[in-house]
Write a structure and sequence with these properties.
By secondary structure, the chain is of the alpha+beta class. It has helices at 4-10, 47-68, 96-112, 123-132, 136-144, 207-222, 225-231, 250-269, 283-289, 291-294, 320-327, 379-396, and strands spanning 2-3, 20-23, 26-28, 33-34, 39-42, 73-74, 79-80, 83-89, 116-121, 151-156, 159-162, 176-186, 195-204, 235-236, 247-248, 272-274, 280-282, 301-302, 313-315, 339-348, 364-373. Strand 10 and strand 11 form a beta hairpin. Helix 2 packs across helix 3.
Length: 418
């Protein structure tokens, strides 16, 4: 069998820019042997090419960390939208000075141009390998791989990591990179688990492309609402109040007041009925709505949630079950439908501390929220009305062109939280 590299070279599709390939719909490394499939080259211009490039950079980061701090424990290191990260369990605090040391070691690994090799092992041998390397998180991950699946590893020099891949042919292809920050991150995103250190970075095929990206990031940072909002005295945060609980200063409060008056008047013109519902409710309501079973971890709970002998309340994460109680207040006729309920609702969500950012991810916020009760034959027209209202609002405040819309559908085989 031929490798993807050999296949592309025969067809004169191989160049220095090619990072990986696609065999049908599957992304593969250039050294992967292929059967009967259509192979296409991937470069950094392709989304999948970037993902392979950045994932390889995350392995270079992990190798550098293990060289400098052998006692560090590795967890996962995926590619993300603008680069990569690796979550690491270490007693060493990865300060900016430490990140500089790690970057220097990464440059050595790139200069060594280590070949990246894939191999597989049976489950017992895979676990033994990771136990010998003192990587307990990798052992946990191996236990979760379904029986009968390939347990694959990638080796570069002295470093071996559990990984599904694919990767670049060698470390030397990652010519330019930058570690951008280190933050806290709970193992598996669960606040009950250990807090790890997440090192973020980005990488590009050359220094010019990297510098161009870093310049764009710096310009965006200057325009970040988190900075501008404080500079313009729109909002602030206070440590003794808590993360994700911003204080709107007089200017910011006035903006919200004007927006609220405007949206409530606009909704009234469109036939919406204004409601004002409580900020909290007993767990009984959330059990009926399904929030108690599916969203309890994201709610602020007042009382013992497991003691059924005592009342237990929770702050509302959304208004759905409350607004429908307005409809259920008395017997209704089909002639009353559609009924459109609207409310500028203050909501509370128990977000993890690592997720907080300015006014984008907070624990208390206010939105314009609506719920409609209608007959089946009214659905199409009411859906158009909702979309028209959303587009009108976004266009009025000047952000329609920056927005995308997603319609979620129900799938019979994946409806646990629908």
């Amino acid at each position: 069998m031929k490798t993807a590299y050999e296949f592309l070279k025969e067809r004169e599709l191989m160049s220095r820019e090619v990072l990986a390939a696609k065999c049908g719909d599957t992304v593969i490394g250039l050294s992967t042997e292929i059967g009967d499939c259509e192979v296409t080259p991937l470069t950094f211009e392709d989304k999948e090419g970037k993902e392979v490039f950045w994932h390889t950079a995350s392995h270079i980061l992990a190798q550098a960390v293990k060289r400098l701090y052998p006692e560090a424990k590795l967890t996962i290191g995926p590619s993300v939208d603008n680069g990569f990260y690796y979550d690491i369990d270490s007693d060493v605090s990865f300060s900016p000075d430490i990140l500089t040391k790690i970057e220097a070691e990464m440059k050595k690994i790139v200069k060594e141009n280590l070949i990246i090799e894939r191999f597989t092992l049976p489950r017992d041998e895979a676990k033994k390998l990771m136990e010998e390397k003192n990587e307990p998180y990798k052992v946990l991950l191996i236990d979760r791989i379904p029986e009968g699946s390939d347990i694959s590893f990638y080796r570069q020099g002295e470093f071996t990591d559990l990984c599904a891949g694919p990767h670049l042919h060698s470390t030397g292809a990652v010519k330019a990179f930058k570690l951008t920050q280190c933050t806290g991150a709970y193992w598996e995103g669960n606040s009950q688990n250990k807090m790890l250190q997440r090192i973020y970075g980005t990488a590009y095929p050359n220094k010019d492309a990297l510098n161009e990206y870093l310049t764009q990031v710096e310009e965006a940072r200057k325009r970040d609402h988190n900075k501008l909002g404080r500079d313009l005295e729109l909002f602030t945060t206070v440590d003794t109040i808590g993360q994700g609980l911003p204080i709107l200063l007089p200017k910011g409060a006035r903006v919200v007041q004007l927006l609220q008056r405007w949206i409530e008047d606009e909704e009234q013109k469109r036939g919406y009925l204004l409601t004002k519902t409580p900020f909290m409710a007993k767990r009984d309501l959330y059990k009926i709505s399904g929030h108690w079973d599916h969203y309890r971890d994201g709610m602020f709970i007042l009382g013992d949630p497991d003691d059924e002998t005592k009342e237990c309340f929770a702050l509302r994460p959304m208004t759905c079950p409350f607004q429908y109680q307005v409809f259920l207040n008395k017997p209704r006729s089909y002639r009353e439908l559609p009924m459109r309920f609207g409310e500028t609702s203050t909501l509370f969500r128990n977000e993890d501390s690592g997720e907080m950012h300015g006014l984008i991810r907070v624990r208390q916020f206010t939105i314009s929220e609506g719920h409609l009760v209608l007959r089946p034959e009214q659905l199409e027209e009411e859906f158009k009305g909702c979309l028209d209202l959303a587009k009108y609002v976004l266009d009025t405040v000047g952000i329609l062109e920056d927005c995308t819309f997603r319609f979620s559908q129900w799938y019979p085989n994946n409806n646990a939280k629908y």
